[in-house]
Amino acid sequence: MSLPHLHHSLSLSPPHLLRRRASHPTVRFPFRGISNISTSSASLADELSHRPSRSPARKRSVSLRCSLMSADQPPSSVPRSALPKDCLSYSRAYWVTKSLIAWNVDVEDASFHLFASKGANLLITDQGIEGYDVKFPLEFDEKGLPENVTKKFPHIQNYKAFRVPSSLDVGSLLKCQLAISSSHVDGTCSNATGLQLPGILDDLFAYSGPLGAVFREDAISLYVWAPTAQRVRAFIYRDSSGEHLLQCLSLKEENGVWCGNGPRSWEGCYYTYEVSVYHSRTLQIETCTVNDPYARGLSSDGRRTLLVNLDCDKLKPMEWDMLADEKPELLSFSDISIYELHIRDFSVSDHTVKPEFKGGYLAFTSKDSAGVRHLRELSAAGLTHVHLLPTFHFASVDDDKRKWKFVDGDRLATLPPDSEDQQAEVMAIKDEDGYNWGYDPVIWGVPKGSYASDPNGPCRILEFRKMVQALNRIGLRVVLDVVYNHLYASGPLGDHSVLDKLVPGYYLRRNIDGFIENSACMNNTASEHFMVERLILDDLLCWAVDYKVDGFRFDLMGHIMRSTMVKAKCALQTLSKDENGTDGTKIYIYGEGWDFGEVAKNARGVNAAQFNLCGTGIGSFNDRMRDAVLGGSPFGPPLQQGFVTGLSLQPNEHIHGDKSVTDRMLAGAMDHIQVGLAGNLRDFVLTSHKGEAVKGSEILTHDGSPVAYALSPSETVNYVSAHDNETLFDIVSLKTTMEISVDDRCRLNHLATSIVALSQGIPFFHCGDEMLRSKSLDRDSYNSGDWFNRLDFSYESNNWGVGLPPREKNERTWPLIKPRLADPSFKPQKIHILAAVENFQNLLKIRYSSPLFRLRTANAIQERVRFHNSGISLEPGVIVMSIEDGHDGIPGMAQLDLIYSYILVIFNACPTEVSFQLPTLRGRKLQLHPVQLMSSDELVKNSLYESSTGCITIPCRTTTVFVEVRNSSYQ
């Protein structure tokens, strides 16, 4: 998910607008330690004797409406007699350690108290807080918050510190509704609020022992972390649905972890937890039914956890335990190339796949299908990794295929290419069909059931493993798209809420008022909290060990802390084939390093944004190259042009400025692309279009940010297209002037792809771009159904012109889209698609024909990569890159390539042929790369190099690769 685009249209009601439960049970539990507590102001007996009566009427009087008092409004501005009645629905104070509470409040002439109610009876009256069981005085600490607290919670570093009495049984208090108040010298309450508890929960209950279902020889043990719960029970069911309760097991708590044991015969049964816990969303003790967050299997509807042992031989494909030895060879992360693919897209429209396999895991095991044949050919050309969009249990697609609705594809195909009708019919069933990208996680550690032939039982586990094995066996490693930055649901209500039911207010990041942050789409998670980070690390290890996946792509990685990402990398790299059946040193991780929202500029700690990741070996997407190649950004004017789409060379109707302005823009874009071609390295030195020798980090984007940020090439993932935004063919068709031919648009598609394919760093390609894939100009097809996301591995159609894209995300650009879709000359023919497929395969072959395209270190790139058409006299629209190798037995640069001593790559985005002289190339023995010489692209064969003059001629809209062969013995 690229951001700030949010490809979900899902929304949840604000916390203060959620309906309250009609009733809740009265929960009684031993309030351990209270009888032994003493306070400085009065004895416990005195405290209890002044306790207000618990009136149900008073309890229900607490309003859940948002207070009109702003978060920035100083407490002293609140009239003494008008303290908001709903102030306890906020949580503006933080219990950060066992002994300290932080609160942004005026301390002058005030006293402070902590209140607890085990039945959640606290309420605000004109006299202050009532309904408490106990009340404790707090002492203002003039020393403030210590460094360990401000480092963990930098956004509250200027809050006041209040010391908690050391004699309190804090563990028992944390199971209560809690509040803190300040009072004037006359005893009237001036301010009050609830508390956020992640700090103290980490301080007291950080836990590294077993969680989930643990299978032993003669027993199954259940472990769940829920330190604020008052009671936890496990309900064991024989079946995935129905009321046949096998057993109700009361779990026992020790240090925040609840545990229970059962017989081994439970294997194959299902269970849920019933948790009684105070929830700040409703200000009540709630009794919630919830799945195990460490679930490894689920029922079809996702409402029960399957008791499944992943190590069971019945759940392993034949020779599964030997798969680590069958993995395709990977010598270096720099050798990686990535192909992004959605499981359903891959096969649902492939008529060569068995009907029962379509759209699911088993389609990848169909050895003779058109899609698998396509992947096999890409693998043979050099492609190394397939990146699968979310495959965990997500909310937006029902696992039960019998409930899905479908459009009439045959009828839609008869409608005009610019009609509104197709999108109207697709959108009418968009939440009831079988399609969604899946960026709405519920349970991270279970394969999605809708891709399995049977979503109940362990079928999804076996079939997922068969998919990984099948891909590995055709030479492709598997990357999972993981979404740890947010969750689909929260609160005590709803079937899809899990973590927030177990430990309310802990797993999700909250703002200073105590409400959940939603900048990552919804329900942002907080990896800065110990047990959130632990869950992420445990989940990654499960996928790596139990499913033998080869890499992870992190959605909105910038919303996760850098320390979490580094720990994840270290944990994965410690895995070994001997002990774990997985070689962790070959697992690559990368993600979206966007820096925005509440975590921007390290506001919640050092986050995993682009500029914070240098030196970690963790990759991040290089949006600088994307924007320079295509023009503008996904959030700017849709017609803004870039290097390949005609900027200054063949303008469209967008007003970029006069020719001098567009020339400067084009020259700047070329600088950005050159930095990307050199791995987007922070310290790579090149000559800018201004004629200055500068580092990559000294070239700036439009907003003044450095273009380059990486310290090694494996930290850069270069791309021009991904699942987010328009496909490459669509964006080229949108941004180029309408007067050019479809032949020219196809060549520009090739040109953009070649920049990625021949760059240093990790090249990343969106599935279908090599087939001129179109989504009919849909910019956000996450829920646009099979109709707009269709892939055709028969190469008959690229899916252009299947109707106006869905109104919700695209209506603003319909006036631009409509005439393009209506024009039949825009639609590629099969000959164009076949040429694009061949071009892509050839680019992969060229990349893997020489290690010079895959240099492993920043020093090697600085030493060998040069850009020649640069400075103030550059030829607009032409990028010239050379990569030089050393010579065996000659001191200096080491020899890496046995075949080629020198490679020259020219990217010509001009609508005309270009010729220019490069004196530095005189005397070289350059020839067209053998792959291009053997290709069916007749235009590239017109590329010329003259040794005596260093003169080069390149056809229009063409990428040409010249090579210098060492000697004939290596040919």
Notes on the structure:
- The structure is a single chain.
- By secondary structure, the protein is of the alpha+beta class.
- The protein is 22% helix and 20% strand.
- It is built from 25 helices and 39 strands.
- It has an 8-stranded mixed beta sheet with strand order 9-8-3-6-7-2-1-10.
- Helix 13 packs parallel to helix 14, helix 18 (728-735) crosses helix 19 (742-757) and helix 19 packs parallel to helix 23.
- It is globular, with a radius of gyration of 31 Å.
- The two termini are 45 Å apart.
- InterPro entries: GH, Glyco_hydro_13_N, Glyco_hydro_b, Ig-like_fold, Ig_E-set, Pullul_strch, Pullul_strch_C, Pullulanase_N2.
- GO terms for molecular function: pullulanase activity.
- This is Pullulanase 1, chloroplastic.
- Residues 91-203 form the Pullulanase N2 domain.
- Residues 210-295 form the Glycoside hydrolase family 13 N-terminal domain.
Write a brief caption for the model.
With 971 residues, the chain is α+β, with helices and mostly antiparallel strands. Helices cover 22% and strands 20% of the residues.
Average pLDDT over all residues: 92
Spatial sequence of strands, sheet with the most strands: 9-8-3-6-7-2-1-10
Gap between N and C termini: 45 Å
Helix content: 10-25%
Instruction: Pick out the low-confidence regions.
Output: 2-81
Radius of gyration: 31 Å
Structural class per helix/strand content? alpha+beta
Largest beta-sheet details: 8 strands, mixed
Q: Based on CA inertia axes, which overall geometry fits?
A: globular
Beta-strand percent range: 15-25%
The helix count comes to 25
Q: How many extended strands? A: 39
Pfam families: CBM_48 (PF02922), Pullul_strch_C (PF11852), Pullulanase_N2 (PF17967)
Domain Alpha-1,6-glucosidases pullulanase-type C-terminal: 795-964
Family: Belongs to the glycosyl hydrolase 13 family.
InterPro entries: GH, Glyco_hydro_13_N, Glyco_hydro_b, Ig-like_fold, Ig_E-set, Pullul_strch, Pullul_strch_C, Pullulanase_N2
